[in-house]
Amino acid sequence: MRHDGSIAHMVRRNGSNPFDQPLWRDVLRDLMGHVPAATAAIGLGLAGYGESRTVTAQQQEAVRHAVGCRIELMNDVAMACAGAFAGQPGVLLLSGTGSMAWATDGAGRQCRVGGWGSLFGDEGSAFWIGRAALAVMTELLDGRRTADAGFLASCADAMGLPRQPEACGAALLEWYGTLDHERSAVAALARSVSDLAERGCPTAARLMTEAAGHLIAHIEAARRKFPDVALPWSYAGGTLRSSFLRGAIAARCGAPAPPRLPPIGGGVLTAARLAGWAPDANWINQLARTLDAAGLGS
């Protein structure tokens, strides 16, 4: 970014999540190789950073000697929080394939809630919703559940599967057996569940309401960690594009604050401050417009 909030250089690369991208080191090193020589500072948000000492050390090693400027590494959700509140107090709720909340008191203290991954948690995430929907489908196919019979046809339609139970079951197993990336494919089903909930499907509404309950627990736990500070909440991640889900959370936690900057903006803002720019509100607003025009908005 330039001083005027415009983009000087932009490169797009694949994800670098060390938990599901085997070539994540190559992605990071390649990305660092495209950093312009005139760069004053970098704010880099990395999935998993600070969560595992081993992974964090590997991430630091991957970028340590790649650039000559000042660089601050942070968790990608911390970066999203920095963008959403521009350094002010708040709780950033993220729900995408996984789920996590990150809170800051605006004075340097931070905390994390959730983010344990699909084996231990990720409650309320897109993966959690998709897996719950698949569980209902398989119970209906087996005859273990009868109360939600209409949900089977709705999900089958959304997934492009036949409605007839026997054919649907065979097609569902075929779908599962040919997946290249299970978590992403299952998480993608959350959008269909949200659409069904918004169209009045009671089963889908129940699943989305249960997901909201888990995400509400994330916000409330984060707020309890900083009881002396009023913490508004904001959001990031594809799951929270669902108006049904946001509405269910808002009923308990209050209306969300619109993110001031998208997640990548938190990295840019961190770099600007690291470079000594002291960005003000006008600069932050200009940055938001720039990122949105570049297709990098939330």
TrEMBL record:
Record keyword Hydrolase present? no
User: One GO molecular function term?
Assistant: kinase activity
Pfam families given in the database record? BcrAD_BadFG
Q: Which residues cross the membrane?
A: none
Q: Sorted alphabetically, which keywords does the UniProt record give?
A: Kinase, Transferase
Instruction: Tell me which Gene3D superfamilies the record gives.
Output: 3.30.420.40
- All copies of the ATPase BadF/BadG/BcrA/BcrD type domain together span 39-248
Signal peptide range: none
PANTHER family on file: N-ACETYL-D-GLUCOSAMINE KINASE (PTHR43190)
Protein name (database record): N-acetylglucosamine kinase
